[in-house]
Design a protein that fits this description.
Largest sheet: 9 strands, mixed
Radius of gyration: 29 Å
Strand content: 25-35%
Oligomer: single chain
Number of domains: 3
């Protein structure tokens, strides 16, 4: 029924287009030269009273999409939209002439037109263009979503983002704000003496993160390549080459599940600073996020999913402390931090957790203790870390590129930053001992051979680069999409990616 009705409406619009052509209008002209955008007109003239406009009779020429039409006999009104704003147009037969008035009567919602005329205020005081000329610029052959229902269907909003942006002002604001977030990240790092670089997205060896890659093929070289899971190993090669502070904002690709926090391609900021460690980067991250919030929102407080969050204060706790603090009340026994000093003890606490849990943690037969600890942390604490919290000191087994802690070699100098129950950043003191790096890669290789598709491959050239001497450094990745979710109060990553990956459309 819906499609049949759509076809019928489309047919009517095709006929109107033919009539417009018969009137002598070009249906899809090559260009149009406005004097102003709609936001410029509103900014310049909104505050001017009717008398002043009457005296001035300022002539303007604007283009936009028709959003409302209200004909009244030999005159009528319309609203045109552009740049996220709307402006009223008044069209009178004796002011525009017969041909243009006939064009006005043939317009459909969604058509793109040019309007020339002078500005005045109607009796109700609305700033309006008194049209002297209309131009036709493009036809909307399909009907727009009905405005009063809005475009509420999330599936359609994500799949046909152009419609979402056309009829939902909030959607446009989200993406304008996203752009502001990226500008603010750049401005901060540039001011800190970082240089922006670009590194390969197609890599012969995927590296820099534990994630399953996408694979592609280069025909001329007959070479399998991987879409990058992270730019990390290339950025650290640049530290060897003498760039002491580098950053890259670009896409990573991970061949994994889709969720409200995961899209297979996503935007990361990664930055590296020589002569710094993970504690320096914590301080830097606090300043960075305060700068972004202040630039984008004008304040450090914001709401996310019904909770008030703030970048005034950042907590710091170790992974073990987080497990202890957020241990479920329903569990019979409760661990203390020192209960985890023997690495194998974690398995007993996973069991204790599972006895009280609706969804038990499932561990494989030969799961390393460090991985079990991370699983326990993610299950018990992750979604309860609402205010900004740095979680420090990760197990060695899940951190193949970080430096070990001097006082506890089972753990590394690493933190993840959690905000709103999501991981937003991940950083560490970078491992720069080539022999140690080879041992870590060999361990990952063993995991790969056991079937772990996200284990890290051995990258011989990276080890060679380290062998020339990489300065001590701290490195960090910040999820740009997740940061944007927080600063736009968007519950899903799909709300902040213009064209998220979706299942193919069902055909009728």
């Amino acid at each position: 029924m819906h499609d049949h009705k759509q076809d019928e409406l489309s047919l009517q619009r095709q006929k109107k287009l033919a009539t417009i052509r018969e009137l002598g209008y070009e249906c899809y002209p090559h260009k149009y030269e406005p004097t102003h955008t709609i936001p410029q007109i509103l900014a310049e003239y909104s505050s001017r009273p009717a008398e002043e406009l009457e005296e001035q009779r300022a002539t303007v020429r604007v283009a936009g999409r028709v959003m409302t039409i209200r004909p009244h006999g030999k005159a009528g009104f319309a609203h045109v939209a552009g740049g996220g704003k709307r402006l009223q147009v008044y069209v009178r037969l004796d002011a525009v002439g017969e041909r243009a008035f006939e064009l006005y009567q043939l317009l459909d919602l969604g058509d793109v037109i040019g309007v020339e005329g002078y500005l005045f205020r109607t009796r109700t005081g609305e700033l309006t263009i008194h049209a002297s000329r209309l131009d036709f610029l493009a036809k909307s052959l399909l009907p727009l979503p009905e405005k009063w229902h809005g475009l509420a269907d999330l599936e359609i909003r994500h799949r046909q983002r152009y419609l979402d942006l056309m009829v939902n002002d909030e959607a446009r604001q989200v993406f304008e704000r996203r752009s502001a977030v990226v500008r603010a990240l750049r401005a901060f790092l540039d001011s800190e003496g970082y240089i922006e670089v670009e590194t390969p997205m197609m890599q012969p060896i995927p590296g820099g993160a534990l994630a399953r890659p996408f694979i592609t093929h280069h025909n001329a070289l007959d070479l399998d390549l991987y879409l990058r899971v992270a730019p990390e190993l290339y950025l650290k090669r640049l530290l060897v080459g003498g760039f002491d502070r580098v950053y890259e904002i670009n896409r990573n690709f991970r061949n994994e599940g889709i969720s409200t926090q995961h899209n297979p391609e996503f935007t990361m900021l990664e930055f590296y600073q020589c002569y710094a460690d993970y504690l320096d980067l914590m301080d830097l991250t606090e300043r960075l996020l305060r700068h972004v919030a202040q630039s984008v929102l004008g304040k450090l407080e914001f709401e996310f999913e019904g909770r008030a969050l703030s970048f005034q204060q950042f907590r710091r706790m170790t992974m073990k402390e987080a497990i202890v603090e957020y241990w479920p009340a329903a569990a019979t026994s409760r661990p203390r931090v020192e209960d985890f000093s023997d690495p194998r003890a974690v398995f007993r606490w996973v069991e204790a957790y599972n006895q009280a849990a609706q969804e038990p943690i499932a561990l494989g037969a030969d799961t390393p203790a460090g991985l079990a600890l991370q699983e326990l942390f993610e299950t018990v604490a992750e979604d309860r870390l609402i205010q900004p919290t740095f979680v420090l000191d990760y197990p060695l087994e899940v951190s193949p590129l970080s430096k070990q802690k001097a006082d506890d070699p089972n753990f590394v100098e690493r933190f993840e930053l959690y905000i709103g129950g999501m991981e937003v950043a991940n950083a560490f003191s970078e491992l720069n001992d080539p022999q140690e790096q080879r041992d870590r890669f060999n361990y990952q290789q063993m995991l790969r051979e056991k079937g772990d598709l996200s284990a890290h491959a051995i990258d011989e050239d990276y080890i060679r680069a380290l062998s020339y001497g990489m300065p001590p450094a701290g490195g960090e990745g910040v999820g740009v999409d997740r940061l944007t979710m927080l600063l736009t109060n968007s519950p899903s990553i799909r709300d902040v990616i213009l064209f998220p990956l979706l299942r193919p459309e069902k055909t009728a």
